[in-house]
Specification:
Elements (H helix, E strand, L loop, with lengths): L1 E2 L7 E6 L4 H10 L3 E7 L8 H14 L3 E5 H5 L11 E3 L9 H24 L1
Parallel strand pairs: 1-5, 2-3, 2-4, 4-5
Length: 123
């Protein structure tokens, strides 16, 4: 697929097989894409030629001019014929909000380990 930068001038049909498809929808809308729809597959879906044909049929019916997917899903298209024109949107991972929580969890685990170790040394 073709990795994008900048705002495209066309309407797209998006598809993905990720745990939080709404985050993909949001990233596309924030980038300025006009969405004709979002087809959601199960997380870790293995795409087939039939999937791509169905997506192209939906795209044509809804008036979209291109298919777009995530970089994670684009990797799974390798080897499927006629997928080279599918657009790829890189998604930025937002860890800012989760980072303090993660660091707190790590510190709690370290503290618990040290406490267990001290107790075992006291015996």
């Amino acid at each position: 697929g073709k990795v994008l930068s900048g705002i495209p001038e066309r309407t797209v049909l998006a598809f993905c097989g990720i745990g939080k498809p709404e985050s993909f929808r949001n990233s596309l809308e924030e980038a300025g894409f006009r969405l004709e729809g979002l087809e959601v597959f199960p997380d870790h879906h293995v795409y087939s030629k039939d999937d791509i044909e169905r997506l192209r049929s939906i795209m044509e019916r809804t008036g979209g001019s291109a298919l777009i997917t995530t970089a994670k899903d684009a990797v799974k298209l390798y080897g499927i014929p006629e997928t080279g024109d599918i657009l790829v949107q890189n998604m930025n991972l937002d860890v800012e909000g989760a980072l303090p929580e993660l660091m707190n969890d790590i510190q709690n685990r370290i503290d618990a380990y040290r406490k267990r170790k001290r107790k075992s040394e006291e015996v």
